[in-house]
């Protein structure tokens, strides 16, 4: 993903989120995301894009309608996760977000233990950050493997109303390597 702030490279997980990856890759190959802005950025949380209207209310899937969530006990909203934005269960379209949160609130440890999170997942969150409260609410379908500093730079930009960057940050183009 080439943005006006730099390049972000992802590894996608079609083995766990086949339909979501197909949607994202097809949109990327068709140029659907080219020129689209990151319409919502919140430092120590996430950056969100994928809406061609730039309003946060637009965009559609390649399937012509919203599609179901694809949750996996192998994927979590760790720092760098690429996840689907939605308006509730099974409402995926074209919008996505990248988890930027560097911090982990240790108050979550007890909740995560009670929910059955494996110790290594809790430890990874504690060491690397992320948004565990979004797990099993938003489909994780990829992870940043290079360019996390670009995500941090975008997240740190000054914002105005509705967490919209004061200066537009655009996806210039996406390239898919298979």
Automatic annotation (TrEMBL):
Reactions it catalyzes: [protein]-peptidylproline (omega=180) = [protein]-peptidylproline (omega=0)
Family: Belongs to the cyclophilin-type PPIase family.
Location of the PPIase cyclophilin-type domain: 1-176
GO molecular function: peptidyl-prolyl cis-trans isomerase activity
Pfam families: Pro_isomerase (PF00160)
Top-rank EC class of the record's enzyme: isomerase
Organism superkingdom: Bacteria
GO biological process, one term: protein folding
Coiled-coil residue spans: none
Described function: PPIases accelerate the folding of proteins. It catalyzes the cis-trans isomerization of proline imidic peptide bonds in oligopeptides.
EC number, as in UniProt: 5.2.1.8
Key words, A-Z: Isomerase, Rotamase
Keyword Cytoplasm attributed: no
Species the sequence originates in: Fervidibacillus halotolerans
Protein name, as recorded: Peptidyl-prolyl cis-trans isomerase
């Amino acid at each position: 993903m080439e943005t006006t702030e730099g390049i972000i490279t992802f590894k996608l997980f079609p083995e766990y989120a086949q339909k979501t990856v197909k949607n994202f890759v097809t949109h990327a190959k068709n140029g659907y995301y080219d020129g689209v802005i990151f319409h919502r950025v919140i430092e120590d949380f996430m950056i969100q894009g994928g809406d061609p209207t730039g309003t946060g209310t637009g965009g559609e899937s390649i399937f012509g309608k919203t599609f179901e969530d694809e949750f996996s006990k192998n994927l979590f909203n760790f720092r760098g996760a690429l996840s689907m934005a939605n308006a509730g269960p099974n409402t995926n379209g074209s919008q996505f977000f990248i988890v930027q949160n560097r911090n982990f609130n240790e108050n979550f440890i007890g909740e995560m233990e009670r929910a059955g999170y494996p110790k290594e997942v809790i430890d990874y969150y504690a060491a690397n950050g992320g948004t565990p409260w979004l797990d099993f609410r938003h489909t994780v379908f990829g992870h940043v493997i290079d360019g996390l500093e670009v995500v941090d730079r975008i997240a740190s930009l000054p914002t105005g109303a509705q967490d919209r960057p004061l200066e537009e940050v655009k996806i210039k183009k996406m390239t898919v390597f298979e």
